[in-house]
Amino acid sequence: MAQRDERGDEVTRKRRRAERRGHVSEYLAAVFLLLKGYRILAVRYRTKGGEIDLIVRKGDVVVFVEVKARVGEREAIDAVSLFAQKRIRAASDIWLARRKDAHRLSQRYDIVAIIPGRLPRHFQDAF
């Protein structure tokens, strides 16, 4: 019984570490995008259908951003599966439906890769 509890505790610790790493990565991505002239509209926007890490805007373009912390750029891009893309698009449809000015906005789906020891890498129109 004690062994099972230790494994459960380890799983919980790993999950919390991953969650913290994700939040720090989202924060770094948000600061990076702010420095590039984007305005942050939402962080961790959640719906029943999915979650969007960041929603940002620059001019008339609203950008739905997925943030991935990985060891390399290719790993970050590949980590955004077709299923994840579908969930992000569904969540973005809900966000846009709640905006009165949505008809005037262009939209885009980007990825920001957070790679250890490097500046974030912004991939526009990633999917």
TrEMBL record:
Pfam families for the chain: UPF0102
GO MF, one example: nucleic acid binding
InterPro entries documented for this protein: Restrct_endonuc-II-like, tRNA_endonuc-like_dom_sf, UPF0102_YraN-like
Alphabetized UniProt keyword annotations: Endonuclease, Hydrolase, Nuclease
Gene3D superfamilies according to UniProt: 3.40.1350.10
PANTHER family: UPF0102 PROTEIN YRAN (PTHR34039)
Similarity comment: Belongs to the UPF0102 family.
Name of the protein this chain belongs to: UPF0102 protein FHW37_104294
Organism listed in the record: Neorhizobium alkalisoli
